[in-house]
Amino acid sequence: MPKVTIAQNILAANDTIAEDIQQMLRAHNVRTLNIMSSPGAGKTTLLERTLLRLRGGIAVGVIEGDIETTADAERIEAAGAEAVQINTRGACHLEAHMIRDALTQMDTSRMRLLFIENIGNLVCPSSWNLGEDLRIVLTSTTEGDDKPAKYPQMFAASQVMIINKLDLLPYVDYDLAKVKRQALAINPHLRIFELSCRSGEGLDIWCDWLLAFVQQ
């Protein structure tokens, strides 16, 4: 029983910090998206392709979460965005205090859109509020079509679902209709995007939505 109390206290403290982050970002007119997925689903590649399409339109910042290395932040900076790397040294999710510390290294006065790329994990990140406006769950055709059924909390906690690697559909055993049906049964309000970072299919629709989201 004491362990439950401790866990509740930790989450409550995290939520307080997250609320402060959200208020600060809104005061600077920054919209924030928390992108979550399993490892290898394509979060960083999606951000690279997105940044290339948005370049010159709006100022974008990215907070990169990884267990180790700065490889993803380096890729994001090469694509033209300000990036801060968070290495958790083993923790399976980002927490609000990490985002607060990362933001002290960023110029939010000119930023309009902030992406938080969470640790590759379909379990833990869904429980931690980071001060984001929306949560995005990214899944891919190479992972199998049972992810919504196996990890329902992640899909219930998200507002957007992206299905990536559509170009590989002819080569994998993946039922696209089944995945969407399962996800919508868990969360009927999910906004679903289907795309391929390799072929570019669906990326324009995704980026048009982002631009509209920033203007809201």
UniProtKB/TrEMBL annotation:
Secreted among keywords: no
Similarity comment text for this entry: Belongs to the SIMIBI class G3E GTPase family. HypB/HupM subfamily.
UniProt keyword annotations, A-Z: GTP-binding, Hydrolase, Metal-binding, Nickel, Nucleotide-binding, Zinc
Gene transcribed to yield this protein: hypB
Gene Ontology terms describing biological process: protein maturation
CobW/HypB/UreG nucleotide-binding domain residues: 34-193
Gene Ontology MF terms in the entry: GTP binding; GTPase activity; nickel cation binding; zinc ion binding
Protein name in the entry: Hydrogenase nickel incorporation protein HypB
